[in-house]
């Protein structure tokens, strides 16, 4: 039996759902106050929330309250008049569907008959995955990634993990492997960026004895070592182009020929790949095979950088501090208010890895002091914080005088036609604006949307166009 809650001001949809649910085991309840399911003081268990939007309810503010619950329900949004931007938002946030009121009864009748399969197919919540694999945080983007990891545990599909350096790509790869049916077999980690160009094929696929000078014995290679387990290709963007074609066949057939061998061998492995680069752009530039990209990203995770996880920062810092104290065998320490303020103001270009290294350093220099103060931070963090406090955050990016730029840019070359000249000038202005917007908002997408008066989807289009941070969001 599932607990279905209908949120609406008038009982219009609720009565219709009661009619079509006769004979089904589900409990149907109506609420008019959202706190009845959101507040910790209330105990109304909700498996499916039917959100009937009949007024000017701002879903962008309402929906995060749902996804922020420890065990968020599945959500079906019903509207009188659809809005495309709103539709994209709720589906991106994980809603089951976004439908018009005219079609709601037919849709709900079909949904209620198969509700058990929809609701209870995932045994692990995002919080369970995070706790089990020590992935700390609860921001919406991280929750999406953890939910995808939970879904990935039920299949052998290939997963592509995208994220900046230090965001925890290998940690997520280990979680995917650890939840899969292959968890008792090998997880083979391959750093594609460190593979020697002349040996990459023999390292991956192995070789037979005598295949080349120095091959005194047979080697099975990393792909064969991943048999029955998981092969994790870190920095997959660095895989040489000539090898990408061979590897594509390996993914399709799970068969390959070691260097110097007379016959093929089989390896039953699951592929997880990771990159900090825009592979779609690399495909356009001829640096990565399109068919290989399609093959490796059956599921995709976009790990958020730490600067977009401000709400997670203090909790994450406390967890990493505990880890650092245990590693150094010292009693647990606490942060001073001033120390936390500097952590919040730092932009963390190295992401979680940088934060972990900073806290390791702080624990090492604070010795037996129970409270950590700003003077114990590494020099570069303190300098940056001091500059910001004085209004000098470093040398600002050069301001382009757009009226002078074209004359300098076209100097020595034939002047283009007017249309090309105008387009070049407008693109230069546009690029400068969005670079400045991204810099001034410090990675805060909500703030950037408000300043630019653009929707989230439109903002990401411009960020992606100019290769700015946070642009690699394929779902937009």
Describe this structure as you would to a colleague:
With about 475 residues, the chain is of the alpha/beta class. The chain folds into 4 domains: about 5-120, Response regulator (Rossmann fold); about 125-300, P-loop containing nucleotide triphosphate hydrolases (Rossmann fold), CATH 3.40.50; about 310-390, Helicase, Ruva Protein, domain 3, CATH 1.10.8; about 410-465, no CATH class. It is about 45% helix and about 10% strand. The protein contains 22 helices and 14 strands. It has helices spanning about 10-20, 35-40, 60-65, 85-90, 100-115, 115-120, 125-130, 140-150, 170-180, 200-205, 220-225, 240-255, 280-285, 290-295, 315-325, 335-345, 350-365, 380-390, 405-410, 420-440, 445-450, 455-465, and strands at about 5, 25-30, 50-55, 75-80, 95-100, 160, 185-190, 230-235, 255, 265, 270-275, 300, 335, 370. A hairpin with an 8-residue loop joins β9 (about 255) and β10 (about 265). α1 (about 10-20) packs parallel to α5 and α8 packs parallel to α9 (about 170-180). About 30% of the residues are buried. The model is unreliable at about 395-410 and about 470-475 (pLDDT under 50).
Integer tally of domains: 4
Q: How many separate helices?
A: 22
Structure classification: alpha/beta
Mean pLDDT: 84
Estimated radius of gyration:
27 Å
The fourth-level CATH homologous superfamily of the largest domain is: P-loop containing nucleotide triphosphate hydrolases
Q: How much beta, percentage-wise?
A: 5-15%
- Please identify the top-level CATH class of the largest domain: Alpha Beta
Shape call: globular
